[in-house]
Design goal:
The complex is a heterotetramer of chains A (109), B (91), C (158) and D (310).
Chain A: H1 2-30, H2 34-43, H3 45-60, H4 64-93, H5 98-108
Helix pairs in contact in A: 1-2, 1-3, 2-4, 3-4
Chain C: H1 2-19, H2 24-44, H3 56-83, E1 92-97, H4 103-115, E2 119-124, E3 128-133, H5 136-142, H6 145-156
Antiparallel strand pairs in C: 1-3, 2-3
Chain D: H1 2-8, H2 12-32, H3 36-60, H4 73-92, H5 102-105, H6 108-119, H7 124-132, H8 134-156, H9 175-197, H10 206-223, H11 226-232, H12 235-258, H13 273-304
Helix pairs in contact in D: 1-2, 2-3, 3-10, 3-13, 6-7, 7-8, 7-13, 8-12, 8-13, 9-10, 10-11, 10-13, 12-13
Classes of the chains: A mainly alpha (109), B mainly alpha (91), C mainly alpha (158), D mainly alpha (310).
C-alpha cells in the first residue's frame, strides 16, 4: 500500500518534470529574443531537474544512490544560475539586445 | 515505463535545444543552448541509469554537473575578452 | 578553524556518498584525499569563512523552503505564458536595490533571482542589481517586501 | 548531423560550441553502447578540457577561419576519395555486435572471462588497460608526457609576464562567480580523487581523474586568476610532477623485474597474485593520474599566458 503510493508519487514527479522540460524547450524556440529565451532555458531547468531527481530518489528508496542524486541536484542548483548569470552579464556587456528591449517595453506600456 | 517516457521527453527537449543551438542567431543563444543541453544530459544520464539498473551512470552525471559549468565559464571568458586571460582589466 | 572543520565534514560526507565501498583501504584513501584537498585549500586560499559561514548553514534550509515555493509559483506562471497561443510577455530591465553588506547574502540574492523563472540577474553592482524580467508579474514578485525580509534574516544570521 | 553543421560554419567560435554538443552526444552514444568507461572519458575530456584548450588555441589565432585561397576542388576530391575508401572498408567489417567478429574472437573472450579472477578487479576496462595492456597504456602516458613538455617548451618562448598590466584576473571582480567557484572547487578536487581511487570498481581511473583534477585548477585559474595558479604550479613543479607520474609507472615495472617477474607483471608484487595485481594497478593508475593532471595544467597555463600575436 505504502509502496504503491510512493511509486505513484514518483511517477507524478517524473511526468511533471518531463512535461516541464518539454515546455521550456518549446519556450526556448518560441520566445523572441535572447533574454526571454534565457528565462525559458537555463533557469527553469532547476525545477524540472528537481522534480526528476526527486522522482528518482523516491524510486531508489533510502540508499547511497539517493545521496548521490541529492549531490547532483545541489551542484546543479548552485552552478546553473551562476552560469546563466554569467551569460546574461556577458550578453549585456556586449550590448546585445539592449535597444530592442527598450522598444519592446515602451510599446507595451 | 514511466522512466522511459521521461527519458524520451528529455530526448525531445534535447533535440529542440539542439535546434536552438544550430539556429543561433547570436552566439549567446548558442552558449545558452549548450549549457541547457548539458543540464538535460545530466538528467538523462540519471534517468537512463535507473532505466538500465546501473547506477554507475550517476558518476558520469556528476562529472557533467561539475564540468559543464567550467566550460561555460571558459567560453564566456573567451568571448568577453577574446582571450582566456585578459591582458588588462576593463572595469 | 570552525570553517575548516565544517568543510572537512562536508567533504567527508561527499566522499562517503560517492564511494560505497567501506573497506579499510578505501577509507584510508578517502582520509588521505580529504587531507590533500584541505591542504590545497589552505595553500591556495580557495574557501574560507566568508565563502562558507558555518552559522549560515543553520539558516539556509528555511530560506530554501521559502525559495522553493516561490520557484514553483513562478514556474507555473512562466509555463502558462509559454503555452499561450499569443505571446503575452512584457520583457523589461529594471534596477533593484540590494543593500547587503556581506558577499554571501548578495550572492544568494542574485542567484535566487536567477533561479526563479521569469527573472534573471544581469549585472551586480555595489548596492543594486540590474534584473531582466519576462513579465510585469514576475518583476513585482521580486520587489515584494517578503523577499527583503527573508534576506535580512539571512544577513543577520552570520 | 552536428558534424555537418560544424563543417559548414565559418565562425570558429560557434564551431567550438557545437563541438561541445557533439561530444555530449558522443558520450550519450557510448553510454547506450554500455561503454561506461569510454563515455566517462568523453564526458570529462570532451565537455570541459577540450573546449578550453581549443579556445585557448583560438585565442592565439583568430576567430574567423581564413578564407581559402586555394581552389576548392582538390580538398573535395581528397575528402571524397578518403570517404569512399572508408565506406569500402566498412563493407568488410562484421555486422554490428556480431559475435563471430574477429574482435570478439581474439583476446577479448579471455579478458572478459578471466579478468575477474586473475586480477580481482571488478571493472574489466580498468583490468584490461592497466594490467593486460599495460605496455600500451605506458606508451600513451609517455605520449602525454612528451606532448606536455613540447607545449611548455614551444609556448614558454612567447610567454609574457604580467608586468605592466598588473592583475590578469577579469572574472575575479565578479562576486557571484568567484563565490560559487570557491565553493565548488574543493568538491571537484575530491570528486577527481574519488574517480582516481575507485577505477577498480566503477568507471574511472587515472586519465579521467587527472582531467577532472586539472579542471578544478583551471576553474581556479579562470576565476581567481592565472597568476595565483601559476604561483602554485611553476614550470619546474609541473615538470617534476609529470616526470614523477611516468617514473612511478616505469618504477612499478622495474620493481616487478627486480622481484623476478616480467616487466609490469604485477603478480609478483605481493604474495597473493590478486593482491599483487591490485597494488600494481593502483600504483600505475596513480602515475597516470599525476602525469595527466600536471600535463593538463601545464597546457592550460602555457596557452593562457601567451600573448596574442598582433
Amino acid at each position: 500500500m505504502w509502496d504503491t503510493l510512493i511509486s505513484y508519487c514518483s511517477y507524478a514527479l517524473l511526468l511533471t518534470g518531463s512535461f516541464l522540460s518539454l515546455t521550456f524547450a518549446i519556450g526556448l524556440l518560441r520566445f523572441p529574443d535572447f533574454y526571454t529565451r534565457m528565462h525559458a532555458a537555463g533557469v527553469s531547468d532547476t525545477l524540472c531537474a528537481g522534480l526528476i531527481v526527486l522522482g528518482l530518489v523516491l524510486q531508489a528508496g533510502i540508499s547511497l544512490v539517493t545521496l548521490k542524486l541529492l549531490f547532483i541536484l545541489l551542484f546543479l542548483w548552485f552552478t546553473s544560475p551562476t552560469a546563466s548569470f554569467a551569460l546574461a552579464r556577458a550578453a549585456h556587456r556586449a550590448g546585445y539586445g539592449v535597444n530592442e528591449q527598450q522598444e519592446a517595453s515602451s510599446s507595451n506600456s | 515505463m514511466i522512466l522511459a517516457v521521461t527519458a524520451i521527453a528529455l530526448l525531445v527537449a534535447m533535440a529542440l535545444t539542439l535546434a536552438r543551438a544550430l539556429l543561433g542567431p547570436s552566439i549567446f543563444d548558442r552558449i545558452l543552448a549548450v549549457n541547457t543541453f548539458g543540464t538535460k544530459i545530466v538528467l538523462f544520464l540519471g534517468v537512463y541509469g535507473f532505466l538500465t539498473q546501473r547506477p554507475d551512470f550517476l558518476d558520469i552525471a556528476l562529472v557533467y554537473a561539475l564540468i559543464n559549468f567550467i566550460s561555460t565559464l571558459a567560453v564566456l571568458r573567451f568571448f568577453e575578452s577574446g582571450q582566456l586571460v585578459m591582458p588588462k582589466d576593463k572595469e | 578553524m570552525k570553517h575548516s572543520l565544517l568543510l572537512t565534514a562536508l567533504l567527508a560526507i561527499f566522499w562517503l556518498a560517492l564511494s560505497g565501498h567501506y573497506v579499510a583501504f578505501t577509507l584510508i584513501l578517502g582520509a588521505l584525499s580529504i587531507a590533500l584537498v584541505m591542504w590545497l585549500n589552505w595553500k591556495m586560499h580557495i574557501s574560507d569563512e566568508r565563502v562558507l559561514p558555518p552559522l549560515l548553514l543553520l539558516r539556509l534550509p528555511r530560506y530554501w523552503m521559502w525559495l522553493l515555493l516561490e520557484i514553483i509559483k513562478s514556474n507555473i506562471h512562466v509555463a502558462i505564458k509559454i503555452w499561450q497561443p499569443r505571446l503575452d510577455i512584457q520583457p523589461q530591465f529594471k534596477k533593484i536595490p540590494s543593500p547587503w553588506k556581506r558577499d554571501v547574502t548578495r550572492v544568494v540574492h542574485a542567484n535566487s533571482i536567477t533561479l526563479t523563472p521569469g527573472t534573471v540577474t544581469v549585472t551586480v553592482d555595489k548596492d543594486s542589481f540590474l534584473v531582466h524580467s519576462l513579465t510585469d508579474e514576475t518583476m513585482q514578485a521580486l520587489e515584494s517586501p517578503e523577499m527583503k525580509e527573508q534576506l535580512e534574516k539571512l544577513e543577520r544570521f552570520q | 548531423m552536428v558534424a555537418i553543421a560544424v563543417a559548414v560554419m565559418r565562425d570558429l567560435f560557434a564551431i567550438v560550441m557545437l563541438f561541445g554538443i557533439y561530444s555530449l552526444l558522443t558520450a550519450g552514444i557510448f553510454v547506450s553502447l554500455d561503454a561506461v568507461d569510454v563515455a566517462f572519458t568523453e564526458a570529462a575530456v570532451g565537455a570541459g578540457i577540450s573546449t578550453i584548450l581549443i579556445l585557448s588555441t583560438l585565442a592565439l589565432t583568430s576567430r574567423e577561419e581564413k578564407k581559402s585561397t586555394h581552389s576548392r576542388f582538390l580538398p573535395l576530391l581528397v575528402v571524397l576519395v578518403t570517404g569512399a575508401t572508408l565506406v569500402y572498408g566498412t563493407l568488410d567489417m562484421p555486422a554490428f555486435s556480431d559475435p563471430q567478429a574477429p574482435v570478439h574472437q581474439h583476446v577479448a573472450p579471455r579478458y572478459l572471462d578471466q579478468a575477474q579472477q586473475e586480477t580481482g578487479v571488478p571493472n574489466i576496462v580498468t583490468a584490461v588497460l592497466a594490467s593486460y595492456r599495460s605496455y600500451d597504456t605506458m606508451g600513451e602516458v609517455t605520449v602525454i608526457f612528451t606532448a606536455g613538455i613540447a607545449v611548455m617548451l614551444l609556448l614558454s618562448a612567447f610567454r609574457h609576464r604580467e608586468d605592466e598590466a598588473g592583475n590578469l584576473n577579469d572574472l575575479s571582480h565578479h562576486p557571484v562567480l568567484k563565490y560559487v567557484a570557491r565553493l565548488m572547487i574543493p568538491f571537484i578536487l575530491l570528486f577527481a580523487l574519488y574517480v582516481q581511487f575507485h577505477g577498480d570498481y566503477g568507471p574511472g581511473g587515472g586519465f579521467q581523474a587527472g582531467v577532472i583534477f586539472a579542471a578544478g585548477f583551471i576553474l581556479y585559474g579562470l576565476v581567481v586568476g592565472i597568476d595565483k595558479t601559476r604561483s602554485m604550479f611553476s614550470d619546474s613543479v609541473l615538470r617534476w610532477l609529470m616526470a614523477s607520474g611516468l617514473l612511478l609507472y616505469i618504477g612499478v615495472g622495474v620493481v616487478t623485474l627486480l622481484l623476478g617477474g616480467e616487466f609490469l607483471n604485477y603478480n609478483v608484487l605481493a604474495a597473493d597474485q590478486v593482491k599483487g595485481q591490485h597494488w600494481g594497478i593502483f600504483l600505475v593508475e596513480l602515475g597516470v593520474g599525476i602525469t595527466v593532471t600536471a600535463t593538463m595544467i601545464a597546457m592550460f597555463l602555457a596557452f593562457s599566458e601567451v600573448r596574442r600575436p598582433e
